Amino acid sequence: MTTQSSPVITDMKVIPVAGQDSMLL
């Protein structure tokens, strides 16, 4: 469960963060 939760949370966090960074740039 921990291994599955890690990638899922990371993907969700990376996607929104990258989108915000692109908008700011």
UniProtKB/TrEMBL annotation:
<protein>
    <submittedName>
        <fullName>Glucarate dehydratase</fullName>
    </submittedName>
</protein>
